[in-house]
Please model this.
Amino acid sequence: MIEISSLERQQKLTRLLEQTGRLSVSQICDHFGVSEATARRDLETLSEQGKLQRVHGGAITVEQAPPELPILERETEQPDEKLRVGRAAAALIADNETVFLGSGTTVLEVARNVRNRRNLTVITNSLPVLKHFGRVGWNYSCFSGWNAA
Model:
């Protein structure tokens, strides 16, 4: 077998894992002609990079959620249910409270239904929610995502 660099081997290992869904250390050793120690090091490196999940004796593919539709598309899905949930959740919020409203179209419906509250402080990570409350004149804070990697 022709020797390849560890980077190239790890790239091929990742592609092979995507095809099979699961690989054992012994399968990696047989396929690439490497020692168990080398196979384990490759798996650890790829695991640290988030490209696979280590399991006893090998690795499996990393489960990833399907991408979420843009908010403007989701806003029209199940509008009656969102309105009911938004009204019910808003009924739990009283004057003079501090609340966190996350992101999402149902949460935006909550925001639309608390307009009559007085002296509300809203903390959010949602630009649509922030935009909505910017017109109301309450105290609000918005936190954005940050990745230190």
Q: What stands out?
A: Strands lie at 22-24, 53-55, 58-60, 98-101, 121-124, 139-142. Residues 69 and 75 are 10 Å apart (CA to CA). Helices lie at 6-20, 25-32, 36-48, 71-74, 79-90, 105-112, 127-134. The first strand starts at residue 22 and ends at 24.
